[in-house]
Amino acid sequence: MSVAHFAVGDRVQVRNLEVEEGLAGHMRAPVYCRGFTGEIERFCGIFGNPESLAYGRDGQPAQPLYRVRFRQIELWPDYRGAAADTLEIEVYQHWLKAS
Amino acid sequence: MSHDDHHHHHHSDHDAIEAPDTSNSDTALLADALRLVLIDKGVFSAHDVQDQLSLMDTRSDRNGAAMVARAWVDADYRAAMMADSAAAAKTLGYDTKGTPLVVLENTNDVHNVIVCTLCSCYPVTLLGPSPEWYKSKAYRARVVRDPRSVLREFGTDIAADREVRVHDSTADMRYMIMPQRPEGTAGLSEAELASLITRNGLIGVAEL
Amino acid sequence: MSQNPPVTKAYHDVGGDDFGPIPTEDGAYQLWERRVDAMMRLLSSPQVGLMRVDELRRGIETLGEDVYNAEPYYGKWARSLAAIMIEKGVVSREDLDAKIEALRVERGLKR
After folding, report:
1. For the structural domain made of C31-107, what CATH number should be given?
2. Mean pLDDT (whole number) for C77-102
3. For residue A75, what is the domain's CATH number?
4. Tens digits of per-residue pLDDT, B21-55?
5. How far apart are the C-alpha atoms of B186 and A18, rounded to whole Å?
6. pTM > 0.95
7. Most Cβ neighbours (<10 Å): which of A66, B83, C55, C61?
């Protein structure tokens, strides 16, 4: 099991593991958020890694999961909404690096 | 060889349109064949399948509405629901079977809306089966990028000074919205309050 | 460091893509579709333990884009379940084909 090392409020960038590590197959980090920076909104717990579970493997090492909050005006160049609007998704720790 | 095959249309109590009958499509035949082969092999029984169909009927948006109505009238339940939504659901008899549930509270400052862009995860235990539009690529694609336009298509306008917060359920959490209690409802019973709460309000594409 | 090649998005990863109006029609599920849901619940139950939701998703993500776009929701599930059950050796393709043929005969369906 991987140790949780991000704290609420930390600025984190979503990695692009397809590019960085040649990761392929089942992934739960949508492309639209990869490379973008958000803030840890909360720690959600430790869960089996879906990239492993999806292939009948045991999901180990289990990964800390975080809810990450993004500002919409930073995610989308043409965002049509309020400057305060946000988007939150859950991201597994191995997809995140400190920003 | 025994089998449990029947042909009849199932009418759900909230549908507006009778869908074309696809019971004999290639995919339906594959689905039925798989089910029957698994029964033949003893993986589960026809009775097990029937039990699941019965359980399906207990899952509807009236469950989520009951939770929200209770939270509106009972401050302790509201606090419990916000601290551990799955446990609070279970105390009302709605068992999410270990799937984490998170209730998001709409406030004067924040309007929440839920989506699952990658597939269409949805809190079925509390809301019943998801609507087709929720599963559509159009909703999944657009609500993360331009939520206010999507909400407007549902007739919902969120003031510019309120934050619209989109939740993309990418992991195991399932989300449900707790809408704001409408004005002028102080005298209503819990059941009357629940009847005001719509499925679209619990998803976040509508206010009440 | 080499240039990052552009990522080709998988067909299910649609967040942020351009689409027109949200479809409004909704319909009831047919019995076969409800039975697919029941089947997945049973297969992924602790008692049976033959499927995980992650596997169902992965199966749907590997159906191919044409199938993904053409199949209704539970049709995708059914195809994914069949593929994974075959992959795990719980059923064989031959088992399924024989049962499909038997159903066609029983229902008086022309090929």
Report:
1. 1.10.472.20
2. 98
3. 2.30.30.50
4. 999 999 999 999 999 999 999 999 999 999 999 99
5. 54
6. no
7. A66
For the segment A35-66, what is each residue's pLDDT rounded down to a tens digit? 999 999 999 999 999 999 999 999 999 999 99
Q: What residue spans of B11-74 are helical by DSSP H?
A: 26-40, 46-56, 61-73
Which residue of A lies nearest to B119 if distances are taken between CA atoms? A28
ipTM of the complex: 0.96
| Mean pLDDT on C77-106 | 98
How many domains is chain A partitioned into structurally? 1
SS3 string, B17-34, reads: ECCCCCCCCHHHHHHHHH
Tokens for B133, please give them: 């539009």
Domain range for A82: 11-98
Q: Do B170 and A89 touch (CB under 8 A)?
A: yes
Would you state the pLDDT for residue B5?
Answer: 38
Q: Is residue A4 part of a domain?
A: no
Contact between chains at C104 and B29 (C-beta distance less than 8 A): yes
Total count of residues recorded for chain C: 111
Q: Do A32 and B160 touch (CB under 8 A)?
A: no
- At A35, the amino acid letter reads G
Q: Is the pLDDT of residue B122 over 60?
A: yes
Catalytic residue among B12, B119, B149, B195: B119
- Name the residue ranges covered by the structural domains of chain C: 31-107
